[in-house]
Amino acid sequence: MELIFNAYRREREAERITNTYGDIDKKFYNNIEKAYDNALDYIFKNGLENIFKDKASEIQYAASGIGWGFGDYIDELYCNYYGCEVDE
Hints:
The chain is mainly α and about 90 residues long. The chain has helices at about 1-20, 25-45, 50-65, 70-80.
């Protein structure tokens, strides 16, 4: 569970830093992406997806529009695990 909460805190901090100081380097975003992916993997392997869906969605929404493709990749990860509705 600590992994999940750490990933959530990291993403929220990344959002705050980016909104305060502007885009950071790619390595910064890669680390946050990896933490989010690891957390989602843990959540699904342990049957916790219903418990953490709102938090995972909150992270997905908060990351939208953040640079270096970060928001797009977070969105992709969320959709890979939870599925997404596709507008046609």
